[in-house]
Specification:
The structure holds 2 protein chains of 2 kinds.
Chain A (H helix, E strand, L loop, with lengths): L7 E7 L3 H12 L4 E4 L18 H7 L1 H4 L1 H10 L3 E3 L3 E5 L4 E5 L4 E11 L3 E3 L12 E3 H11 L6 E6 L1 H12 L6 E4 L3 H8 L2 H5 L2 H16 L4 E2 L3 E6 L6 E6 L2 E6 L2 E6 L1 E3 L2 H5 L4 E4 L4 E4 L12 E3 L9 H18 L5 H14 L3 H7 L4 H4 L6 E3 L4 E2 H10 L4 H8 L12 H12 L3 H4 L11 E2 H5 L14 H4 L2
Parallel strand pairs in A: 1-2, 1-6, 2-3, 6-19, 8-15, 9-10, 9-15, 10-11
Antiparallel strand pairs in A: 4-5, 5-6, 7-16, 12-13, 13-14, 17-18, 20-21
Chain B lengths: L5 E7 L3 H12 L4 E4 L8 H4 L3 E2 L9 H12 L1 H5 L6 E2 L2 E5 L2 H16 L5 E4 L1 H7 L9 E5 L3 E2 L2 H14 L3 E3 L4 E7 L2 E6 L2 E10 L5 H7 L7 E10 L9 E4 L5 E4 L5 E12 L4 E3 L2 H14 L7 E7 L2 E3 L6 E4 L6 E5 L9 H14 L18
Parallel strand pairs in B: 1-2, 1-12, 2-9, 5-14, 12-21
Antiparallel strand pairs in B: 3-8, 4-8, 5-7, 6-7, 10-11, 11-12, 13-16, 13-18, 13-19, 14-15, 15-16, 16-17, 20-21
Classes of the chains: A alpha/beta, B alpha+beta.
Bound molecules: flavin-adenine dinucleotide.
Flavin-adenine dinucleotide binds next to helix 1, helix 2 and strand 13 of chain B.
GO molecular function, one term (chain A): oxidoreductase activity
Keywords (chain A): Oxidoreductase
InterPro entries (chain A): BFD-like_2Fe2S-bd_dom, BFD-like_2Fe2S-bd_dom_sf, FAD/NAD-bd_sf, FAD/NAD-binding_dom, Metab_Enz_Cyan_OpOx_G3PDH, Opine_Oxase_asu/HCN_bsu
Chain lengths: 474, 373
């Protein structure tokens, strides 16, 4: 691996998680030039965050699935791919030119193909009190755990999903016992999920792992409340308690620390910016970019690998990265059909657990239909009721609601509210969410200093006729 | 569709101009249908810089712009919504004495024509109006009672009010062909045919095609002016600011975000409705903003966009009757500064369509000026 010197590459890979690293290894093996861009200071992505520097103790806490990242990162380091850490991609143009901020200014990179391996984000979970200080997401807690081993004490986990129990179990191992787990999975879901069990048995190891985690939590005396509804986080200026109903009783758990989680969804920012087509995935309850069997999007030479193409987990992410890489190599006349087939087969095996997980851990109906007074867009303080009112006035979709209420216009650029806003509009209008669509995503993908834009290396200014007054002033 | 929808007036295009003309026509008792290929306000009208200015306009536009300003000052009376309109000075900043001289000449010219809204401000006054302005700026030209509004909210409010007055909107409906059949206009769309006594072309950057179908030449060019908006900043600017020697449009919204644009264009693709940013050009707007307001060095951009707008070669719009057909009219090609004109142009178009006459001085905007080009 060498430092960046040039700015044209056969392949640019955005994201150095399992998918990005695997794609980089494949394309460079085939002799293509590649650059990997990632915001983080080190490879690993979300799942293997901090993997190169994690000591034995922490690696043990995080478990063997985490430790598996070591070899992947090593193979990536050993590859001929250039790696640019601390690199924030803020724009990609339709000719696959990439603007990337390096903290001290921007660089422009021209790619022949792009692999978007930017992974997933946690699903936004609008509910009463979710914006109070002291409330965070399970994923954010895990980042702390991975990055510097610091975790808070006395956390009440609220929500559903395999990550919720994983993170709770990791915290337990780290010696900070969670206060409780408040699960929102309705009882009926277990029944519905049963029909997917036979298929999932093919992926029995996942099921066993999940059961072992829950068991360890229960044994350690962490209370688990099931089928919780009517959840509110209460507090004056900060979180003080979680209240809910479970098992026919109302509960009130006092705590200053709440971790929310309702599963993860593809991070659509890059594929939306590129205007790739997206479709609604009913089972995962989120938008996913349309891809072909090799994970190429509707935009030629743009691939999306990993969870960005629909949630599949770390193992699948790596396989998808390989597959995209192999396909790019194949298109460049350096294919390896046999290897490609074996990766495809492995991916199919990996997919077997998904229907069960997706049925069981579908997002809680409460967060999909937040009460009128619940904040949905945190940046601009827009409530679910505001959105419904705008729809009633005639605003037909998320972009009009955005223009009208400023929801999604704040610094998070809609990551935190996008899905919830589409969901609320769809149900208010009584139209399928696939018709309602999503925010248009505009650059910069992440906030950018105005001075950095001013310092952009650039072409000559196109002359503006200043006698034409309109040009000088809008 | 059951039966052919009919109206006294069919408006092609649901931008601010289409909505405004529809609203005013409805007030005059006409039945109106607006046909919009996307959603009202999807294009220039919903995404512009929101500048409501008389300042710096082409002399031919000044009378209409002045009339529009009167309406803006009481916009709520017209549409039952304040449109986010804020009254504030619009100022063109001079960075050199030579620029100030040019501005002074313009102010004098306008006074000669009978308009007194543009006034020269000296360096001291400039600093009072814009405490954060860079020390090298020597003065400026100001129109103190101009302002800005929120573009989408404005267009949406015009649409809602028009609807309340009985105007029918057909959105996501593309006008493919307009033709004359006897006394009526037949408008073929993606959702069937509409019939109307009068036809108004408010199709923005796409208006050239409608004009062509009427047998008229309108050399309209689609452009994509670009904008950026910053994260919220402490209030430092209470005016809308433009450049004189270098293009700029600059304002701080009520919530503290700063909106920057001016002159720099991205790549428009009117066929697909898309426009693409061109940061290698937009960087000049960033440079100019920092040059005139040094405080902007610390600003962070959170979003950028470009809207598709129609521009005429002489940078003034086409407003008036068709030159080839009776009962057909145009209002398009506002060349990146038509937002402010929306209220008054809609008013005069409605008058023209309903009565066959208007006193507004629209001769310079006739489509016939391109007949031989
Ligand atoms: C970034 C930007 C900043 C600007 N800043 C300012 C400013 O600060 N101040 C100012 O005064 N002006 C400004 N402008 C200009 C102003 O926005 C426009 O001049 C004005 O909005 C034009 O309105 P319109 O109704 O003519 O066009 P549009 O808003 O473009 O409306 C035309 C509509 O017609 C529809 N249409 C077209 N063809 C068809 C068809 N065949 N069938 C059905 N529908 C069709 C389109 O979909 C569109 O919605 C700016 C423009 C831009 C892009």
């Amino acid at each position: 691996m060498s430092a960046t010197t040039k700015n044209r590459y056969d392949v640019a890979i955005i994201g150095a998680g399992p998918a990005g690293m695997a794609a980089a290894v494949e394309v460079t093996k085939a002799g293509l030039s590649a650059i990997v861009l990632d915001e983080q200071p080190a490879p690993g992505g979300q799942i293997y965050r901090g993997i190169e520097t994690s000591d034995e103790k922490r690696t043990k806490i995080l478990g063997p699935d985490y430790a598996a990242g070591r070899d992947i990162a090593r193979a990536f380091r050993d590859s001929r791919a250039e790696y640019l850490p601390g690199a924030t991609v803020w724009n990609i143009d339709s000719a696959l030119g990439i603007d990337v901020s390096l903290g001290q200014g921007s660089k422009h990179i021209q790619a022949g193909a792009i692999v978007v391996a930017t992974g997933a984000i946690e699903r936004p979970t609008p509910m009463p009190g979710w914006t109070l200080p002291g409330v965070t997401t399970a994923g954010a807690l895990q980042i702390l755990l991975k990055a510097n081993g610091v975790v808070s004490d006395d956390v009440v986990f609220v929500g559903s999903g395999p990550l919720l129990s994983l993170i709770a179990a990791q915290m337990l191992k780290a010696g900070v016992k969670p206060r409780a787990i408040v699960e929102t999975v309705p009882q009926s879901r277990y029944v519905a999920a049963l029909k997917h069990l036979p298929a999932a048995l093919g992926a029995a190891s996942y099921l066993l792992k999940g059961m072992a985690m829950m068991l360890s939590l229960r044994r350690a005396g962490v209370p688990i409340y099931r089928d919780a509804t009517g959840i509110r986080i209460e507090g004056n200026g900060k979180a003080e308690a979680v209240t809910f109903t479970s098992g026919g009783k109302s509960h009130r758990l006092e705590t200053t620390s709440v971790a929310l989680h309702q599963g993860i969804v593809p991070n659509q920012q890059v594929t939306r910016l590129l205007r790739c087509e997206h479709e609604w995935n009913k089972s995962q309850h989120c938008f996913v970019p349309k891809v072909d069997e090799y994970f190429e999007t509707t935009m030629a030479d743009v691939y999306v690998a990993g969870d960005g193409a629909g949630i599949g987990g770390a193992v699948a992410a790596r396989l998808r990265g390989r597959l995209a890489g192999l396909r790019i190599a194949e298109k460049a006349g350096r294919g390896n059909a046999q290897e490609r087939r074996s990766v495809t087969d492995a991916l199919m095996r990996e997919a077997k657990i998904r229907p069960l997980l997706e049925t069981l851990y579908a997002p809680s109906p409460e967060i999909l239909a937040p009460a009128d007074e619940t904040l949905v867009c945190r940046c601009e303080e827009v409530t679910a009721g505001d959105i419904r009112k705008a729809v009633d006035l005639g605003a037909p979709g998320p972009n009009q609601v955005k223009s009208f209420l400023r929801s999604g216009m704040g610094p998070c650029q809609g990551r935190m509210c996008g899905l919830a806003v589409s969901e609320i509009i769809a149900s208010r209008r009584g139209e399928p969410i696939s018709e309602i669509g999503y925010y248009r995503i505009r650059p910069p993908l992440k906030p950018l200093l105005l001075s950095e834009l001013a310092a952009l290396e650039s072409e000559e200014a196109v002359p503006v006729d200043l006698a034409d007054e309109s040009a000088a002033l809008h | 569709m059951t039966g052919t929808p009919m109206a006294d007036l069919i408006v092609v295009g649901g931008g601010l101009h289409g909505c405004s003309a529809a609203l005013h026509a409805a007030k005059r008792g006409l039945s109106v249908i607006v046909i919009e290929k996307d959603n009202a306000g999807r294009h220039a009208s919903g995404v512009n810089a929101g500048g409501v200015r008389r300042l710096g306009r082409n002399y031919a536009e000044v009378p209409i712009s002045v009339r529009s300003m009167e309406i803006w000052h009481r916009i709520e009376d017209l549409v039952d919504d304040d449109c986010g309109f804020q009254r504030c000075p619009q100022i063109k900043v001079a960075e050199t004495e030579a620029e100030l001289e040019t501005l002074a000449k313009r102010a004098a010219d306008l006074r000669e024509l009978g308009f007194t809204h543009e006034v020269i401000v000296d360096q001291q006054e400039l600093r009072r109006l814009l405490p954060a302005v860079a020390p090298h700026c020597v003065g400026g030209l100001a129109s103190l009672d101009d302002g800005f509004a929120i573009p989408y909210n404005t267009t949406f409010a015009f649409q809602r009010k028009a609807r309340a007055l009985g105007v029918q909107f057909f959105e996501k409906t593309h006008v493919e062909n307009v033709r004359r059949d006897g006394k009526d206009w037949h408008v073929d769309t993606s959702a069937g045919t509409f019939k109307g006594r009068n036809l108004l072309n408010c199709a923005g950057a796409w208006a050239g095609e409608i004009a062509r179908q009427l047998g008229e030449h309108a050399p309209i060019e689609a452009i994509a002016p670009m904008m950026i908006v910053t994260a919220r900043m402490k209030r430092f600017c209470d005016a809308v600011v433009g450049g004189c020697g270098r293009p700029l449009s600059f304002k701080q919204a009520e919530n503290g975000t700063v909106i920057i644009g001016g002159g720099r264009r991205g790549y428009p693709d009117p066929k697909t409705n898309k426009s693409e940013m061109r940061f290698s050009q937009l960087r000049y707007s960033a440079e100019t903003a920092i040059g005139i307001f040094p405080i902007m060095k610390s600003a962070t951009i959170v979003r950028s966009w470009a809207g598709i707008e129609g521009r005429m070669p002489d940078d003034i719009p086409v407003i008036g009757p068709s030159s080839t057909h009776e009962n057909a009219f145009h209002a398009f090609g506002f060349s990146a500064h038509g937002f402010q004109l929306g209220p008054a142009v809609g008013e005069l178009m409605a008058e023209l369509i309903a009565t066959g006459h208007t006193n507004a001085p629209i001769a310079p905007f006739s489509i016939t000026r391109f007949a031989n080009s």
